[in-house]
Protein: F-box domain-containing protein
Amino acid sequence: MPAIDLLPLDLLTDIMPRVSSINDKFALAQVSQLWRNLALDSPRFWSSFTGGDSKADFHRMPFILERSGTTTVLHIHLCFRYNDHSTNWRATALKALVPYVARIETLDVDCQDTLHPRDEALLDSNLQFPALKTLRLTGVASPTFLCGLSLSAPQLRTIDIGCFYPTRWDKLLVPSLENISVRVAGWTDVETLADVFRRCPRAWRVVLHSSRPWPNANPNRDFPASSFARRPLAPTLRELELRLPAEDLERVLEIGFSDVSDVVLESLTGSIYNGQSLDEVELLSRVLLRSVGPLLAFEYIDSHHIELRDDSGHTRRLECWNVNSEFEIELVWKHLSIHYGLHKTVREIRTKIGHWRHYVEVFERFRPRSTDGITLGIEIDSRFSELWLRGGASSLDEGESWLDEEESWLNKRDIMWIRGLAKVEFFASDANFLALESISKVLARIKPSRTRQVQVCIGNTYLRTGYSSALSLPAFRTALEELPGNWVICDHCMLPLRADNNF
Structure:
């Protein structure tokens, strides 16, 4: 008997269903005759699978579906990155699922290539999926290639649709729905939004995005109050994300939620078209921030997304969905500081290293000043770390000259000062390591507290000097001691550093 067959059968039986890839399933079934027999006799092993973008995967699907038995529910995840329309093997794979729709509980299809009309035999043929609870469909992000969708699923709980166009919403908006996300799918009527709340009383999360300003009718019209006559409108709603003009978002909330405190919504996201317009920023913040408590967290995720949290943990997200526009940090921080006292209450600020100078400039007028201690989170990408591993910034993109080694980078106006700074957290956006040189360069640009110890945290990343040398704990401590101020390694990082470097 091969040594591999000595693995306890009950343990092997528990492990096998956790293998999701079709290719991995077939590889596992060929380890030994014992494993092969166990796999062939286990419908549960074949009932959940993930298909990659290969003809081999989809040629194997009929066999997999047959071995899944007749009673086990199916969890199917398919990803199409490329399709040869001359043979259209993808359409054949989808068509193979049709006889099994009664057992599909999860259907997740990601189409990163345009669909051929024949592909829609499964999704746009008015089929009924009696066991379906989770439906996720992602198509090409272009209105030209919106794919048709017509099916019914009376037990549906989660629907996540992007770039598919449902021709019969009434079949999908069932009372059992809890999580609803529809993005770029021809959803342009406020009546349809009201229909969600009328038909889906269990919905706790609703996300509605359109490919254009929504709704696109007369912007001066009043929404009919009858559209939101049902009360309570959304008794279980906790997360709401709408991409529509801020004026319309305001009217939706006033008409639909006038008798419900806004703070019931744990997460509320609103979008505007022009993030550089003070008028739009003022309107969006007024809509999103009414009834919230003091703002404790500010995160500039990127130029199109800003996230705020109040003292009760409620999250408010400001989005700018026009790709040709973006939020200006100075404008947003200044507005929130003047009208909501952000600079006086914030205790957590998170941003990317590339926005450093913007914060320095706005902090000169509206400086964070919480006496309870402020955490500054800085995201550093691998390019920044590699620059310092090479010993300098010799090749930088235009617009990143602030990283240059010239004396201008050392200018006093680029020194950041945060009253009450208690912790600086570094994290890597696209790598699993941080360079000590880059951290030292950043900390040298922060004016430290004269009386408070400031902790330095590197999260779950590795810290090193040079290209291959592992960083020792003493080297990290020494680097901090050489900087002006009272910098210390946080407790979270002490043990991992010791373990990784065998101290």
